[in-house]
Design brief:
alpha+beta, Jelly Rolls, three-stranded antiparallel beta sheet
Length: 305
């Protein structure tokens, strides 16, 4: 039997949670966030849960409520979005396929008694790209109330991710991802899953934060959810995840510059487009440009020695 030492070495450098995520398609991190943080977010979102109407349609669920733009609905959401352990998992799953990851959505979900089980699905089906090798998305479900089998905890099919997403039927039986406030239920965009039915007398509240490849069109239009006059108050890391950073080479720019230039208002005068290339591209370009310049001529604007 041939042993792939590169894979073994990669596994040895990953956390147990990362190995579980990549090997089984999901991982449950107990105590991933302080319960005090979850309680603060739950309190902030409470009025919006009450005011939001039920969804329409069989997929979203007619006994389910959903709303997004969570970064402006609770000042504590930024800490959850920037959770270091979660970002590490997202980078592990997605980093081979993009220059930077981005926020796909931050959405609150509430299942009411009588909610039917959700249609089993894979979130990667939002995009019609190549399947089986590339991972497009990492989902993180954060319970605000306990998730139990009775109240509709997320159902996950282990091992249904990656190339297994191409087969008709999953090979393993599903598991019920029971968890509590502070825990994180993490699963890949290629993993088959769905919300369970709520057979209890209580509502089940949770929020889902997901991260996707930085060159994809995200589920939630981040620039509309968080226009520049709002995003300018975000930390640099949160602003970048929300789309205010270019994905090299040059994707997501405004007039050829990083969209964060809009934090100072829309420019009154024309601005210059500026290269935003990966280091490898920049090195190739530098050699190519230098070969075309007359000997001894420096770059435009450079001072002679």
């Amino acid at each position: 039997m041939l042993i792939n030492h590169a894979v073994l070495d990669e596994r040895s450098h990953r956390s147990p949670a990362a190995n579980a995520l990549m090997d089984r398609g999901y991982a449950i991190l107990q105590g991933a966030a302080p319960t005090s943080l979850i309680e603060a977010i739950a309190a902030d979102l409470g009025p919006r849960y009450e005011a939001t109407p039920f969804c329409e349609g069989g997929f979203y669920g007619e006994r389910t409520k959903r709303f997004g733009r969570l970064l402006i609905r609770s000042p504590h959401m930024a800490d959850l979005v920037m959770n270091p352990a979660i970002l590490e998992l997202a980078e592990t799953a997605l980093g081979n396929w993009c220059e930077r990851i981005q926020l796909n959505l931050a959405q609150a979900i509430e299942l009411h008694p009588g909610a039917l089980a959700q249609f089993p699905h894979r979130d990667q089906d939002m995009w019609q790209g190549a399947l089986g090798e590339v991972e497009y998305l990492v989902n993180v479900m954060w319970p605000l109330t306990p998730f139990t089998e009775e109240n509709g905890a997320t159902i996950i099919w282990p091992g249904s991710h990656g190339v297994e997403a191409l087969v008709e039927e999953p090979k393993e039986a599903p598991i019920i991802a029971e968890a509590g406030p502070g825990d994180a239920i993490v699963f890949l965009g290629s993993t088959l899953h769905g919300a369970g039915g709520n057979r209890s007398r209580d509502v089940r509240r949770g929020i889902i934060v997901s991260y996707c490849l930085g060159w994809l069109k995200p589920y939630e239009n981040q620039w509309l959810a968080y226009p520049p006059e709002i995003a300018r108050a975000f930390s640099p890391g949160v602003a970048a995840l929300a789309g205010y950073a270019q994905h090299r080479p040059n994707l997501g720019n405004f007039e050829g510059q990083c969209p964060s230039v809009l934090f100072d208002g829309y420019p009154q005068d024309p601005i210059a487009a500026i290269d935003a290339l990966r280091p490898d591209q920049q090195a190739l370009l530098a050699d190519y440009v230098a070969a075309q310049r007359p000997e001894g001529e420096g770059e435009p604007g450079a001072l002679a020695a």
